């Protein structure tokens, strides 16, 4: 493999819990909610899918369906979609919905999986090019810089910057072109079988990891080092991992 592409959320990094997210915003705003009320609000926000990078919504209201489908095509759509689902939940102040959205874009809201730095560093040492390909509506580069991992990433291909969402193969093609790697010598690693599996249509090999809390997934990325050393025709077909 000449290159490895990684998804961001649920693959290399995990966003904080919904309760931690809400607590941080309330603290910043110097607002108070009782513990039972706070936990109830956090559960409602989680069910609504209001935390980007968190749990998928249990249901999207019909009037938001189009906005939700296209949310990763621009920064404006992304904010509008997530604040709209957040506003389904009553909070002590209306401004908290935008504050919650702003919070999730901060490096403090994200934690790398335990083996992320190790794997990225090892790929760099081997001369394997690394790209991050994400469906997202904001610039995640500061998250990597804050953790000292930006030096291991050769290119970032973000949906909102190109108005293209995974699983559209064009997004993966842009990443391969930026790295100077043919799709047949590129491995895509992600947690979403539909979105990240779109790389297979381009001819990339695909490997999936589980979107789990950081403490529950200490070393799921390490097999990538072995996979990156194999030829594409020896890799497990997408969906079989």
TrEMBL record:
One of its GO terms (molecular function) is hydrolase activity. Signal peptide: none annotated. It comes from Streptomyces tropicalis. Pfam families: Hydrolase. Gene3D superfamilies: HAD superfamily/HAD-like. This is HAD-IA family hydrolase. It comes from the Bacteria. InterPro entries: HAD-like_sf, HAD-SF_hydro_IA, HAD_sf. Keywords: Hydrolase. The keyword Cytoplasm does not apply.
């Amino acid at each position: 493999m000449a290159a490895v592409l990684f998804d961001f959320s649920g693959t290399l990094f995990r966003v904080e819990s919904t309760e931690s997210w809400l607590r941080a915003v309330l603290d910043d705003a110097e607002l108070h909610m009782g513990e039972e009320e706070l936990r109830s609000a956090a559960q409602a926000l989680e069910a609504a899918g209001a935390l980007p990078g968190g749990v998928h919504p249990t249901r999207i209201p019909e009037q938001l369906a189009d906005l939700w489908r296209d949310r990763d095509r621009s920064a404006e759509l992304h904010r509008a979609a997530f604040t709209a689902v957040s506003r389904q939940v009553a909070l002590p102040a209306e401004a908290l919905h935008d504050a919650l959205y702003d919070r999730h874009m901060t490096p403090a809201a994200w934690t790398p999986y335990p083996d992320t730095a190790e794997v990225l560093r090892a790929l760099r040492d081997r001369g394997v090019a690394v790209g991050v390909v994400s469906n997202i509506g904001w610039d995640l580069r500061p998250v990597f810089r804050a953790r000292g991992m930006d030096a291991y990433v050769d290119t970032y291909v973000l949906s909102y910057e190109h108005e293209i969402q995974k699983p559209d193969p064009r997004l993966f093609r842009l990443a391969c072109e930026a790295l100077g790697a043919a799709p047949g010598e590129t491995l895509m690693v992600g947690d979403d079988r539909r979105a990240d599996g779109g790389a297979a249509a381009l001819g990339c090999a695909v490997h999936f990891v589980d979107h789990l809390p950081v403490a529950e997934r200490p070393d799921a990325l390490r097999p990538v080092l072995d996979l990156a050393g194999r030829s594409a025709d020896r890799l497990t077909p997408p969906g079989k991992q």
